[in-house]
Amino acid sequence: MKVILTEKITKLGNIGDTVEVKTGFARNYLLPNGKAMRWTRENVALFEAKKAELQARQDAAKKSAEANVDAVKNAKLHMIRQAGDTGQLYGSVSTRDIARMLKDVAGVSVESAQVLLGSPIKSIGAFDTKIALHPDVIVPVKVYVAQTQDEIDALVAGKILTFGTKKVDEEKEEKNEEKVEVSENKVEETETVAEAE
């Protein structure tokens, strides 16, 4: 479907660009959200009449996004989640979770699509991501995910968390001690049996 963009959209184009997009994308996202209009001769004339207004709105949105840059940069995105012994999360941290936390912590409302995470976070650690407040205003942020606040403080300090090694070693030692005790008991039993004969 051919549309005229009414605002700048990353990886698609600038205001006024005529682009070809999939019909579903246009009908479900671009047109209902006012980000584009169908390409017709009438709409081209309408767009030219409104171009200055749309450009002013775009500039205002960019200024608003730039005003929130410091709030987003200084936001402490610390997430406490349940995880297994290996540091693997029970579930994951998604773009929606990060968007919600950004609103709670910094008071900045963003859609989950504006969180440029890539794939969901599935383990404990520190992760780099970006928040696109506007197509021209992209802010890098760090997300810390851990089981406790102490672990988050360690991650913030730059320490590397290790999982499972201590517990596994302790379990191995306990099993070895049990085996030694069992084998000693067997030796004692065979000695008593030999004495009885």
Write the layout of secondary structure elements.
Blueprint: E1 2-5, E2 18-20, H1 23-30, E3 36-38, H2 41-67, H3 69-74, E4 77-80, E5 88-93, H4 95-106, E6 115-116, E7 121-123, E8 125-134, E9 137-146, H5 149-156, H6 165-196
Parallel strand pairs: 4-9
Antiparallel strand pairs: 1-2, 1-3, 5-7, 6-8, 8-9
How would you describe this protein?
With 197 residues, the chain is an alpha+beta fold. The chain has 2 domains: 66 residues, 3-Layer(aba) Sandwich (Ribosomal Protein L9, domain 1); 96 residues, Ribosomal protein L9, C-terminal domain (Ribosomal Protein L9, domain 2, Roll). It is built from 6 helices and 9 strands, in the order ββαβααββαββββαα. It has a 4-stranded mixed beta sheet with strand order 4-9-8-6, sandwiched between helices. A 3-stranded antiparallel beta sheet has the order 2-1-3, covered by helices on one side. It has a two-stranded antiparallel ribbon with strand order 5-7. A hairpin with a 2-residue loop joins strand 8 and strand 9. The chain is elongated. The chain starts with a strand and ends with a helix. About 6% of the residues have low confidence.
Key features of this structure:
2 domains; Ribosomal Protein L9, domain 1; Ribosomal Protein L9, domain 2; single chain; alpha+beta
